[in-house]
Amino acid sequence: MQHTLTDQLVDDHTILQVVVGSRAFGLSSAASDTDRRGVFALPASAFWGLRKPARHHDGPLDEQVRWEVERVCTLGLAANPTVLEVLHSPLIETCTPLGAELRALTPAFLSRRVADTYLRYATAQFAKAERGIARTGAPVWRHVMHLVRLLTAGGDLVRTGRLVLDVGADRDRLLAVKAGEVPWADIVAWRDQLVRRMTTDLATSPLPDQPDEGRVEQWLISVRERSVRCSS
């Protein structure tokens, strides 16, 4: 059984908090939520007992989720799109010295592995959208918009080695998808084009074949070691 985390404990150990979602993607409106995601680094002693602390914490603000730093490292090395967006969001609300170190470490998480992760996720979610069409006649258009956006960002990352969250010139077209104004056949064609481009660009991508797991692990160990020294 895991230890229950409190808002105050997570607040006290938060090293990075950013805004993601529509506001970071350049797709927000006046009615958009503010999606906050963050990273906290618990003291090493929290892991010494039999009952380990939870690896994530929701709240207390609406649409606020924070993960323990080890979980962020694990997901980041697996090219998890959500975690990569947290590490690259330009909308920073909290960043301690440890948070700045984590942000500086972001290149170590990037590798050609992102193509597989992004494509597998998009394929599964598009299949879910198609089941929604078969069941109700329409998918959740907001989800479809974000799938296309994810494929676009992933393709740019594979091609350039940089993850840019803002959708730029695709804003109006993506918002039209969200409004249900783009025929499904056109969305499928757009998706297929993005998939082909990402697959083709993978062979010449500037990204390394694998993330730098050793560098990430070394940093995580240093975070734990410093925590022990500070508490002694």
From TrEMBL:
Return the InterPro entries for the record.
RlaP (IPR018775)
Origin superkingdom: Bacteria
Protein's UniProt name? Nucleotidyltransferase
Q: Which organism is it from?
A: Micromonospora violae
